[in-house]
Amino acid sequence: MPTIAMSQDRQTVLTTFETTPGTCQDLVDLLTDAYESFISKQPGFIAAGLHVNDAQTRIANYSQWEKREDFQAMLRTDEMRKRNRVINDLCRSFEPVMYDVAAVF
C-alpha cells in the first residue's frame, strides 16, 4: 500500500492517461496485468494505485519506488517498452512524471 510521507528515501511517480469510456476498462485491465505480472516484481518497486474518474476519460496512477533509477530501469526493459506500445494504442496520451512529496496533511 502506498504511504504518502515527506522523505528522501522514495520516488513518487504520477502518471495520467487520457482515454475514452469505450476503452477505459480495457486500459485498466492492461495496467492491472502490467502491475500484477511485471512492474510489482521489479527491483525498487514499493506500491501503486490506479484511479479512474467518474466519466471514465482519465486514469491516474500513483506509484512509489525506492529510487528514481529503479523506475527508469523498469521503463527501459524490453517488456515494459512492449507493454507501453499497447497501452499507448488505448489512450490519447499518457505521461509519467516524477514528484517529491512537498507536504502531507
UniProtKB/TrEMBL annotation:
<keyword id="KW-0503">Monooxygenase</keyword>
<feature type="domain" description="ABM">
    <location>
        <begin position="11"/>
        <end position="105"/>
    </location>
</feature>
<dbReference type="Pfam" id="PF03992">
    <property type="entry name" value="ABM"/>
</dbReference>
<keyword id="KW-0560">Oxidoreductase</keyword>
<dbReference type="GO" id="GO:0004497">
    <property type="term" value="F:monooxygenase activity"/>
</dbReference>
<dbReference type="InterPro" id="IPR007138">
    <property type="entry name" value="ABM_dom"/>
</dbReference>
<dbReference type="InterPro" id="IPR011008">
    <property type="entry name" value="Dimeric_a/b-barrel"/>
</dbReference>
<protein>
    <submittedName>
        <fullName>Antibiotic biosynthesis monooxygenase domain protein</fullName>
    </submittedName>
</protein>
